[in-house]
Amino acid sequence: MPQPSARNKLLEHAEAVFLRKGFNGASVQDITRAAGVPKGSFYNHFASKQDLAVEIVQRYARGTDLSPLKGNDSAVGRLRAYLLGELERTRTTGVEFGCLLGTFASDSATAGDRVRQAVGEALASRTNSLARTIGEGQTAGDITASRPARVLAAFLIDALEGALLRAKTTVDQSIAAEEIDIALDALRP
Fold first, then answer.
1. Pair (75, 125) in one structural domain
2. Which helix (H) or strand (E) element contains residue 140?
3. pLDDT tens, residue by residue, 141-166
4. How far lies 85's CA from each of 68, 80, 101, 164, in Å?
5. For residue 42, how far is the Cα from the chain centroid?
6. Per the count of CB atoms within 10 A, which of 1, 43, 48, 119 is most buried?
7. pTM here?
8. Which CATH number belongs to the domain containing residue 35 in this structure?
9. Residues 100 and 48 grouped into a single domain
């Protein structure tokens, strides 16, 4: 069986290190130690910690399960399923660490423009996906049309990230799930 490359090991382990320590707290040494590769090999694959962080953000965004947003259920039901799925994703990586995008967003002032841009693109992509579902709900009359679908989608993403931030302090996702329900109730006409 072929051995995973050093690059793949770095990618596999960097997400957890960044999630636990943030961009600023995670050193190249922390990442290479977690990956079990020599520190020098890091620079064979990435020009900087920022380059690795951008790739981790993109990889995390690609791993987002958008399938709950599709289907025949009500738009609000599909939104709830998606948001609860994101809560579950966070639970599996550690509620106390929150969402990787939120962690990078809080470090974006010092992580650099490329990391900030990658996080912004990931959040915009999620927002666009939710906006499509919200638009369907608005057309069906299940979701208020008092605001544009994109604005409501951004509100839901912000509610999710805020709920996950609060959950970091309590290490209890039940409050986050309740906050998601409150946000979804606010979408009703």
1. yes
2. helix 113-140
3. 999 999 999 999 999 999 999 999 88
4. 8, 8, 15, 12
5. 25
6. 119
7. 0.90
8. 1.10.10.60
9. no
